[in-house]
Design a protein that fits this description.
By secondary structure, the chain is an all-alpha fold. The chain contains 4 helices and no strands. It starts with 12 loop residues before the first helix and ends with a helix.
């Protein structure tokens, strides 16, 4: 369970931390779903749980996506 993050792709420290804690070989040491959902990567810019139906028929605008960058 060894991996490296690519140098040429920008990945936040919160994302790296979460991925590292999910990719633990020993299941008893791996994050639970509740721990994943409460991780700072998941809570700092939460993704909405619902969206308007119009968002399903066309790609989101750059302005809407910018709030999650």
């Amino acid at each position: 369970c060894q991996f490296n993050f690519p140098d040429h792709i920008q990945i936040s420290e919160n994302a790296k931390n979460l991925i590292s804690k999910i990719l633990v070989l020993d299941p008893s040491k791996r994050l639970t779903l509740d721990e994943i959902l409460s991780h700072p990567f998941m809570t700092s810019n939460p993704i909405p749980k619902t969206t308007h139906i119009s968002h399903l028929v066309s790609p989101p605008t750059a302005g809407w996506l910018s709030q999650y960058s």
